[in-house]
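Hey, I'm writing a tutorial for new members on how sequence and structure tokens pair up, and I'd like a real worked example in the thread rather than a made-up one. If someone can provide the structure for the chain below, I'll link this post from the tutorial.
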Amino acid sequence: MDLRQGGVAGRRPWWSSRALLAVPVTIIVVITMVDQLLPEDIHLGPLLVIAPAITAYFAGPWLTALVGLLTVAAQAYIGWHFGVLLSRNVLVQILALAVLTALIVVFCVLRERHRRQLARVRTVAEATQHVLLWPLPDLLGCVRVAVLYLAAEDEAQIGGDLYAATPVDGGVRIMIGDVRGKGLPAIGEAALLIGAFREAAHQHAGLSELAAALERSVTRNLAQLAPAGESGEQFATALLLEVPDEDRVTRIISCGHPPPLLLGPDSAVTVPLHPAPPLGLGRLGPSTYTVDVFSFEPGDTLLLYTDGVIEARNTSGVFYPLAERAALWAGQSPEKLVHSLRQDLLAHVGGRLDDDAAVIALCRTPGPHRGHQR
């Protein structure tokens, strides 16, 4: 299961626009009828501009122009009804309605053009997302998997947070990481680290060797992606996890990344780690990668996450209490857990994150599974 937050609202269905069209038409009819019942010195005709203005909210330029034409016709009918159609006052009102309707239609045309541009941006973002962040299977080796990804950029579906997983001989290797920066500018750096992991995960027998290979790759290549004036400031945190099929002892390395949460039947425990520096800081000296181990039993759920989750604040500046909230959902499946987490996290921040956030929920199954399936 893969939950992501999109940034561009879809078009309303055509039948919805047709149904809402009854509102401005009703307004035109009501204003026209009431105007005929009022004294001659009271004129409601100028209020007819409300109809095309309302139509522009839910319809395109053609329907808006049609409603505008109806308002002009209604104003002309009112003038004809009172025998003043060719008077200067009525002609000015008709002209004003026509000009305002034209301006509203121009606004609709510009809005539709912008909407199409956003749709293309979303299409490109979705394609890029599937290239970089391959959807993880529901069952990978001996673990059930569910992913949550929330991008901070409104028009992006990916950003600086990343994840990848691949089956290897005897188990599964998983990486979750966070490159410096957020949103669209960090996509290139995230792509570099994901590509390096997918290649190196099958070439190195131990996690320490894998971490060292990622360090060399990131140090060598990140500098080329650094913006002008920021050379030497590019790095990425990463958490490398190896879950054996047969052994309950799971191995993990943290390169400056937050430790995962191990959820039991009724508890949430932070896995103790000995973190190494983030990837890309090899110039500060050789890193020593400590492989930490812990028992990952069948039925347990392991929650990997990025700092965008635990550093999310509400309007009072309070950080999101991940461990406390996750303990409430410890008995749920990975799919339900990430769904509950998504709703609760967005409610905590008021619907908008200031940083990208990613979560991977892994539940150990009772026995090993060969391969993976959707």
